[in-house]
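A protein record in our archive is deliberately plain, so that people and models can read it alike. The tokens are whole numbers drawn from a learned vocabulary of local backbone shapes. For reference, a complete record is included directly beneath this paragraph.
>
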Amino acid sequence: MKKIAFKTLGCRLNLFETDALVSQFSKKKYQVVDFEEEADVYVVNTCTVTNQSDHKSKQVMNHVNRLHPGSLKIVTGCMATNYKEDLEKSEKVDFVVDNDHKSSITSLVDAYFNGEVVTPDTFAKDLFGYEPADETFHTRSLIKIQDGCDNFCTFCIIPKVRGRATSRTKKDILENIRQVVEFGYKEVVLTGVNIGRYKDETTDFEQLVEEILAIPGDFRVRISSIEPDGYSESFFRLFENPKLAPHMHICLQSGSEDVLLKMRRMYTAKFFKELSENIRSRYPGFNLTTDIIVGFPGETEENFQETLKVLKEVGFGHIHTFKYSVRRGTRAERMDNQIPEKEKTRRSELVRQLSDDMKMEYRRSFVGKEQTVLVEQFDKNGFATGYGEHYVPVVIKQKDLRRNKFYKVKLTDIEMTDEPVLTGEILTS
């Protein structure tokens, strides 16, 4: 039995694609092992959204080449697409598989071990050629509904490495979800590059989610990262359905109108605030999380303070903070007034401090309330850990619970580990 190991960097779309590959290799009787173990094949699914992402991807590839020189080494993902020609010249990698051909990695490896002379381009391009995954690294089942983006924000490399926006057929998505629910998954996460722009013939994102919620079964639906545009006002009525988790990660990027315009974002900070107020007025306690880029070219101190003001007004449950990275081939690369790295670091630290404060305040508001927690794993004390419907982490202070099961929990306290975590006990009828 051949052994194969995976390392995934970056977004949930990469996680979905790795999970699907893991399931495919398991069905073909490969033994999936930890990335630090000895294996016949190593697959590194890379990210290239920032300079730091490139650096991490290169570190992982160097690590594999140093420790396992005789193994088959495959690099795929966005960095593999962005730097394909350079990586193909490297002796550290056996195959460079771009995103268009990622779903064919299983066939590529099989052909290699059968002695066939093949390249990734031997196989047809297929962005959605992944079977429903019954064995993955996660309790949640990630569902890819869309790929690529047509927005062309001035800072973003994603349209280059993921291509133009393409939607998976509604029929395939619904069948995928029915199958993973039959496999026993209790939570599905809808993911893609720009999922709010989903369109399959007459079906848009709102209609797709509505049909997913109508699928029978004891499961809940979570929406992955999404842009603030592309779905209608009526979309938010869907959160009245208890199957749809009251949490959205909506990408703000900046609270400055001037910076948003330079970024070529398709909304204003004013619109974003009104959107958040609308959601919270309908669903108090709704968890809004976001992304923020600091140090975009030309971002003044006044612009940065405008961003901090909007963050405080919205009151996010968590903020992913990124220092702007120059991406080769983007419009922002050619912009004047690039911000010094030291200043980017100062600004990112201020946003992180604010995020930590808001995260603690938001999670503390749940003490005394109830959450439906999906158990994912167990801590060193044997207590179950998982997430409530609002995507707040919970430790259930009871033992002998079951993984991948919902428990109604009364939240009693909050503890500080690496981050604030709620604790609670199961409610008994």
